[in-house]
Every structure is written in C-alpha cells, then in structure tokens.
Amino acid sequence: MSKKDTNTEDKILKAANKVFTQKGFAATRTRDIAAEAGINLALLNYYFRSKKKLFDIVMLENLKKFLVVNLKDIFNNEKLSINQKVQEVVSKYTILLKSNPDLPIFILNEIKNNPQQLAQNLGAREIIFQSHFFKQLQSQTTVKISPKQVIINILGLTLFPFIAKPLIKNIMDMDSEDFDDFVDERNHLIPIWIDAILKE
Amino acid sequence: MSKKDTNTEDKILKAANKVFTQKGFAATRTRDIAAEAGINLALLNYYFRSKKKLFDIVMLENLKKFLVVNLKDIFNNEKLSINQKVQEVVSKYTILLKSNPDLPIFILNEIKNNPQQLAQNLGAREIIFQSHFFKQLQSQTTVKISPKQVIINILGLTLFPFIAKPLIKNIMDMDSEDFDDFVDERNHLIPIWIDAILKE
DNA sequence: AAATTAATTAATCAGATGATTAAAATTGTT
DNA sequence: AACAATTTTAATCATCTGATTAATTAATTT
Q1: Minimum CA–CA partner of B115 in chain A
Q2: CA distance A180 to A172
C-alpha cells in the first residue's frame, strides 16, 4: 500500500457512507463515523463542517448510484427492445443491490424527510420520461396500462425483495444464500412477467 | 364528548404512534410525543417506563395491523379462488396504506434494526405457508414460478408504490390526488397482472 | 533552515435528550 | 370530612452529542 492509500477525507467519506446507509441520519453518531474511519472526531467537522453537510454528500452519491447509473444508458439505448431493456434494468439493479442491500431503504427513508430538494437535481424525471424506453412503451401499451404503471411494476418487482429483505428472510426462513438464489431467480423471471403483463 | 373521552394513556399511545411512524425511533423525541399528546413529559415515563418500551408497543400494534389483519382471513377463506384472494389482498392493503402511508417504511426500517425478535411472534410464517392460498398456488403454478415468488410479486406490486411514494410523486410530478388515482388504478390491475404471470 | 500553512489532537462547550424526583393536585375510599 | 392512593406538574439530573477551541505536529513554501 502506498503512503496515501486513502487520505483522511476519503476515509471519513467511506466510513460515513457505511454508517449512514446502515443506520440512517438520525441514528448515526458522528463519533461512530470517526471511530469507523479511525480518525479524530474534530477532523469530521474540519473537513465537512457538519454532520448534515457530510450526510448530504453521502446521500447525493447514493442517489446518483441508485437512479442515474443504472437507468440512463439503458433507457436511451435505441438498439435494445423493450424486453432487452427490462432485462438490463433488472439485472443492473439486482447486481447493485446484492452488494448494497441498505441502499433502497436508506434513500426512500431519507427522501421522505426531504420532500423537495432531492432527486430533481439529478434529472431523474427527464431520464425516465423523455427516454427511448418510455416512447417504446407508449407505442406498445394498450389502453389498459400506462407506461408509468409498467415502470413502477419493473421497479417494484425488482426492488421490493431488497427493501423487505429482513422481513422476507425471517418469514420465509431463508439464509443469505437462499435469498441470493431467490433474487437471482427473479432476475431471470421478471422480464418474462413484464412481457406477460404487456401482452395482457 | 364524555369526560374520559380519551385517557392519558391512550393520548400518549396515539401521539406516540403518530410521531414514531412518521419519524422513526431515532428521530423521535419524547418531548415531541408529549407535546403531540398535550401531556407532561413525565407522564410518558410514568405510564410506559421508557421511550423504548413505548416504541415496542406501538411497533407491535403496527405489525399486527400490517401483517395479520390483512392476510389471515383472506388467505384461509376456502371459498375464494386465487384471483379473488389476490383482489382481496391488494384491495385491503391499498385501503390500509392510503390512510397509513408511513406504515411500510416504518415497519421495514425498524425490522432491519431488530433482525430477530420481531414478526415471528405474530405467526406470520404459518399464516402464509400453511394457508389455503399457498396450497392453491402450489397446485396451480408451473415449474417456472414458485408460490413464494408469486406472493412477493403481489406484495411488491401492491406495496412498492407506497414505499416509494415521495420519490414517485416527485419524479412523476404527481399531487396527492394523482397518486391516489394511480394506486386505485393499480388496485384494479394487479389481480389481472398476477393472472397473466400465473398463466405465463 | 526558517517561516508559513495545513492537518491532527485532546479538551471542552452548549444544547439536547431520556429519565427521575419531590411536591402539588386530583380522585377514590372509609 | 379525613385519609389514602393515584395522577399530574415543574424542576432538575446525568448523559449524550454535535461542534469548537487552543495547542501540537506535520507538511509545504520561501
């Protein structure tokens, strides 16, 4: 490892990301972040001014990770069919959430507390509603089902198991391996289900 | 109104339910509960000993509301077909969540922090896996799709919009009326979609 | 090397927060 | 009414928590 393998600022950011996503803003203590980062508490305020400012940075990173990276390129790839796009979206989210299980609850939970400011800056609205995918759905879907409903179906079917992971593992008596198999199976099936829904 | 329209204990419980479900355990101040209930802070500890004990009571009530009330009777009603059961479940949850929008995040978020103790006491496992509905699914579903997947599909399609409500309203530029229309439409469509999935 | 700037530390502050206490007020009992 | 038990209140405690400060150490510049 080089001397500056990770500088203090990055160590704090990494630790903050871990603790914030795991426990949420209110339950997080700045001392926990400092301990996790292995630095003096005062350095947190030295580099980031306040807990809230540090949180905002972490949240923005995660929002980008969650909303943009996954959707933008897929939704606008004109070479992909509807079904291929669904496959890509489900697969990307399944991979992302298998290694970031706390991401959905973290984001949804904290967005609830900040009704406005978040998310619109990321251009999520445009990414979705002006996308090639949305136009494909508009020209394909029947009067029974709107593109908005389809998109919520894709996201609901894909994200819900991760959001409800602790509950599902408990009630369905799954260990972590069972759960991974379960979402892998869904990764394969959801595009088929969406296809069935669109043909309905 | 009678003199004892609501006694102190109930006032505290009602207020605690409101504040806890809205803000979660960590972000809730006992002083906020006292203020919401219009009582002296000390009465909270007088009646419920501690913030945590009060929270546990509120959480148990909400878990029951969320898990048992909705599912138990429907899942075991032998007179209902699969499709009728799906209609009932979706409809009951849609009604419940329209008047309790914070319920899903509240429960899922706090279950995450209590991996074990919760939920198993409610017998949710038995309610689902020993239900008439589960057996119906077992005899109907193909090799492609297990009853577990179907149940998660029903719950995901139904609950996800409420879980992601702030995000959806923001990104899809909906007001509260739009959102209600949106979930009402889903209430009608989800049973049809589940049917399509089962026939797939 | 000296001087300047940046980074780090230990100690501390001020306000928030869950909880307790002792006294006062209310209600119930004899 | 007198007494006892219960409920309510205001004040206070002890601890937690985000943030700051002043001093120290390390790095950079001149």
Answers
A1: A166
A2: 13
Q: How far apart are the first and last CA of chain A?
A: 57
Inter-chain touch B200–A186, beta carbons under 8 Å? no
pLDDT tens digits for B162-184?
Answer: 999 998 998 898 999 999 999 99
Quick one: pLDDT at residue A95? 95
Contacts of B94 in chain A (CB under 8 A): none
Q: Which domains does chain A have, with CATH numbers?
A: 1-49 (1.10.10.60), 59-199 (1.10.357)
DSSP string, A106-168: HHHHHHHHSTTTTTGGGTHHHHHHTSHHHHHHHHH--TT--HHHHHHHHHHHHHHHHHTHHHH
Q: What is the ipTM of this complex?
A: 0.92
pLDDT at A111: 85
Q: Angle at CA B100, nearest 5°, toward A123 and A112? A: 30
Residue B147: predicted pLDDT: 94
Higher pLDDT pick, B2 / A138: A138
**What is the identity of the amino acid at B145?**
I
